[in-house]
Amino acid sequence: MDVDEETAEVTVLDVENLTIAYETRKGDVEAVRNASFQVREGETIGLVGESGCGKSTIAFGIVNFLGPNGKIVEGRIRFQGEELVGRSEGALKRIRGDRIAMVYQDPMQALNPSVRLGDQLAEVLTFHQQISDSDAWERSIHMLKRVNMPDPEDVMYRYPHQISGGQQQRVVIAMAMLNSPSLLIMDEPTTALDVTVEAAVLDLIEELKRDFKAANIFITHNLGVVARVSDQLCVMYAGQMVERGAVTDIFRSPHHPYTMGLLASVPRLGESKAESVLHPIRGRVPPPAERPMNECIFAPRCDFATEECRKALPDFVEVSPGHMARCIYARDIASRPRTTKKRRIAKDLEHRGSESPEGELLNFDDLKIYYPQESQSVVSLFGLGEKRFVKAVDEVGVRLSKGRTLGVVGESGCGKSTLVKGIIGLEQVTAGDVEFLGIDIDRPVSERETNLIKEMQMVFQNPDSTLNPSYSVGKQIARPIRRFKTVPRDQVKGEVIRLLKAVRLDEIYYDRLPRQLSGGEKQRVGIARALASRPDLIICDEPVSALDVSVQAAVINLLLEIQEIYGSSMIFIAHDLSVVRFFSDDIAVMYLGQVVEVGPAEAIYSPPYHPYTEALLSAVPIPNPDAEQKQIRLGGNVPSALNPPSGCRFHTRCPRRKDMLPDGGEICEKEVPPWRSTEHGHRIFCHIPLEKLETVEPVVHSSR
Predict the structure, then answer these.
(1) Which residues, 6 or more positions from 115, have their beta carbon under 8 angstroms from its beta carbon?
(2) Contact status, residue 430 vs residue 459, Cβ threshold 8 Å
(3) CA distance 486 to 479
């Protein structure tokens, strides 16, 4: 095991000039090229970059889990002083899960759905150690307690589908830590989690790092997460490391144009479209088979590239002690002129939203969407007994003015998607008034008039689920144009091409199939299709959650341009509160089927907060390691919408009621809260008086 003499820290993993390739019919294709880094005991190194940059390939290469056609072409991987390259499969199997453990992005892919969780946990111990089944069972329970799993003894007897996503990830982390590994590799462990669950898991990872002193590799595309958990950072692009150093150094002063581009693509918590602009990186990551060998690999997308960049592959340049960047202009990149101009947004964003169009577009009051709960009891079979309902949306009322964007945020299961599905007619409204353009639209979409369907369109989260793989892009956009008679039939193709250009896709995309498009391009096609009828309202349900940060920025800018040019109103659902703040004019915060806070975006992100909103904001990962952020963590799980708590539905998890209300907030358990209104239409659904909520300090109270 190597020891750094200067820091007296043990080097657990030393990767040197690692090159990984995959065998194809056209020959070997390099996925990772000359990657080098070290991880010391108790240290976390972050690997960040867009999809296809080789982050996960490095992780799988370390444990030689590359599949039948993957291989390490050259380089060294020394783990605790031992060379891993060339080791037999049997030797590596003894190391994997014992001295080296891995936490995957999707816990359901790592857990066997047909085996009890306790048996899966105990097997990790019995496979690698001489230990009895009973001792393995008890140690597994202890580790579940260690990762703050509620009722661990009961969880041991459950199957994976019987616990929540956050709890599944805790089980996987517990499984990884059972043998006290020296190296823990985490591949996007929080990507699919709610922001509150993500915060709790990140807290847990930091706590385990301190206690177990394991070396950690944390792979993610989320700059906010990597800023929070990492000590060192490696930025990867197209299989190469382009910048590495201390996380604070890189975030304060990035010296590679790609790192600068990633940071410019991310909205900061509190920034709005009126005061800042996102700058996405143009183009896309080149596929492995098309990457240049003898020039800067980032040059085709770089805003600072010159002919010198295309003459040779650049080496690392040390810009400060321990901070390296693979760019010939690294030392003076901040002062260099751009060789490619940034394309301006359609209109000056400084004046965006300053003059809101008059008139109300959408209005819903006391909206309810209930699902009847089927019961298998004998009483219910004979039609007796009380009917039970899942109250997915319960007494929600919000208004949307013309030309404005309403953001809807909240944890999974709070009713966001159900709300918009009820508005658009994909779910039956149980009760309440829903008016669109002054017309009652509480009926399903199949019963609505064509002109109403035409004026309300939707962009879904996953374009793969809404695009027909058998039809070309042009045909799929043309269909609603013909259906709603947007233009005469002889002008349909021209209108499709105009829409493609409006979403920054060339005419050549007309005949392409969905499988020939990237994720960002598919989402642009979905937006173009939604625009085909020239609607007054566009509903966007998590349209950027599955996209890389640069593609996300491009799609957000595109939606802003569309709104500016066409004057469309929008409802924007997302779990990223930074994105919602940047994009929205007004925001509604939902919890367990109800809106608990609503108002102008700028009011929602500063005190007074609803306690739930405050907790959400405190959980948002901020892409700035210098930011000082309050830590408020919600206890327990979201209660069931089948049997929601009495009084205030948030009282079972509220961190404020006992300190801010008499008698420990007993009123919250018994009475429905009143609406408390501030100036400018900001409303909070809470028993705590506004004057007390106003004394709460801002969530982010200091940032470099």
Answers:
(1) 159
(2) no
(3) 10
Contact of 186 with 103, CB cutoff 8 Å = yes
Distances (CA, A) of 302 to 259, 266, 285, 440: 11, 18, 12, 51
The 3-class secondary structure across 168-205, one letter per residue, is: HHHHHHHHHHCCCCCEEEEECCCCCCCHHHHHHHHHHH
Residue 342 CB: number of other CB atoms within 10 A? 12
Separation between Cα atoms, residue 350 and residue 277, nearest integer Å: 10
The predicted-structure confidence for 547-569, as pLDDT tens digits, reads as follows 788 888 888 888 888 888 888 89
Rounded-to-integer distance, Cα 470 and Cα 687, Å: 55
Q: What is the DSSP string of 566-619?
A: H--EEEEE-S-HHHHHHH-SEEEEEETTEEEEEEEHHHHTSSS--HHHHHHHHH
Distance CA 637, CA 142 (A): 21
Global pTM?
A: 0.86
CA distance 505 to 84: 46
Mean pLDDT, range 573-578, rounded to an integer: 85
**Cα torsion through 700, 684, 581, 349, rounded to 10:** -120
In terms of DSSP H, where are the helices of 365-518? 378-381, 416-424, 450-454, 473-484, 492-502
Contacts of 655 (CB under 8 A, 6+ apart): 611, 615, 632, 634
Give the rounded percent of residues in the chain with a pLDDT score beyond 70.
94
Please confirm whether the linkage preceding 608 is cis (ω < 30° from 0).
yes
Using an 8 Å Cβ cutoff, are 198 and 615 in contact? no
- SS3 (DSSP) at 238: coil
Beta bridge partners of 396: 367
Q: Which residue has the tokens 């470099």?
A: 704
Closest by CA to 400, choosing from 600, 104, 608, 669, is 600
**Identity (one letter) of the amino acid at 613?**
T
CA gap 704, 701 in Å, rounded: 10
The reply to whether CATH 3.40.50.300 applies to domain 1-99+180-267 is yes
* Start-end of H helices in 213-307: 223-229, 247-252, 257-264
Q: Show me where the domains of the chain are located.
A: 1-99+180-267, 107-178, 605-702
Q: Using only the alpha carbons of the chain, give its radius of gyration.
A: 27
